[in-house]
Design brief:
With 275 residues, the chain is mainly alpha-helical. It contains ten helices and five strands, in the order H-H-H-H-H-H-E-E-H-E-E-H-H-H-E. The strands form two sheets. The chain has a three-stranded antiparallel beta sheet, with helices on both faces. Strands 1-5 form a two-stranded antiparallel ribbon. The longest helix has 23 residues. The C terminus is likely disordered. It holds the Pfam family DUF2063.
Length: 275
């Protein structure tokens, strides 16, 4: 007699592989064949997974059409089943899957469009935080400024792409009417995706600001985070950035390091001061 764990594994295999019939031996027929009973579960599970992907990736679905989307989803689902109890967490690998899905090879931007939709999805469901209070920065000792670690709002996501994926996304919104023509050679984009209230916003940001936000997202201290920003744009205005991103709640807090030994220096962090 198999253990409960073995029964569960057999059931899972049967749900994602109709040719695996091991579980049929443990299903009571009672007027309906074991295979038919398992098929009902299998169809329900696949339907729910496909519906979840459709909810998260409506632009991808519109770009490729219903039939292609279903074709791709039904091959993705058995390879990447949900590993969480919350169905909102399902589908995070779909972008990478599409990027290497041979039938989608003619749509090189499709993977990044899917990444943008996943960022939107995560941003929408993220926790909320109050914006950064700039007055709190004035209490930080000058010697501690270089080691400050700024915190982004939990809904913030950063995404760079060689394709104008923000325009592709916008052109394929339900309220957009007819699909507009998007020039794929329009150039690369660097996007900040975040939620304000109940609305998710997609904002194009400059190279320097994107580099700084990405460094903050990785937990890099201020002095080191500013280096790639100034490397991208020597005229980058950190003071204006700080005021703007505190007021729009992109920045929600900071951590002061202890036992700071480094001092501020214009060679590594020009213009660094508390506003």
């Amino acid at each position: 007699m198999p253990s409960l764990h073995e029964l569960e594994l057999a059931f899972v295999r049967a749900m994602f592989d109709a040719t695996d019939r091991a579980a049929e031996a443990f299903v009571c027929a009672h007027g309906m064949a074991s295979a038919a009973r398992l098929a009902i579960y299998r169809n329900d599970i696949m339907h729910n997974y496909r519906a979840a992907l459709s909810d998260v990736y409506p632009v991808v679905k519109r770009l490729v059409g219903d039939d292609f989307f279903r074709f791709a989803a039904e091959r993705y689902i058995p390879r990447h089943p949900s590993r969480h109890g919350n169905l909102h967490d399902f589908g995070g690998e779909f972008a990478a899957y599409l990027e290497h899905f041979p039938p989608a090879a003619g749509l090189p931007y499709l993977g990044d469009v899917a990444r943008l939709e996943w960022c939107w999805h995560e941003s929408f469901h993220a926790a909320d935080r109050c914006p950064l209070a700039l007055d709190g920065l004035r209490t930080v000792a000058e010697a501690s400024l270089p080691s400050l670690r700024f915190e982004l709002h939990p809904s913030c996501r950063l995404l760079a792409s060689p394709f104008p994926i923000d325009r592709i996304w916008q052109a394929n919104q339900p309220a957009g009417g007819e699909i507009a023509t998007v020039d794929l050679a329009a150039g690369a984009v660097r996007l900040l995706i975040r939620r304000r209230g109940d609305a998710v916003e997609i904002e194009s940001v400059g190279t320097a600001e994107f580099a700084l936000l990405a460094a903050f997202a990785r937990g890099v201290p201020l002095q080191d985070a500013l280096m790639p920003a100034y490397a991208a744009d020597a005229r980058f205005d950190f003071e204006a950035f700080l005021i703007k991103r505190a007021s729009d709640a992109t920045l929600v807090g900071f951590v002061v390091a202890t036992n700071v030994s480094r001092t501020i220096g214009p060679a590594t962090s020009p213009g660094l001061r508390v506003v």
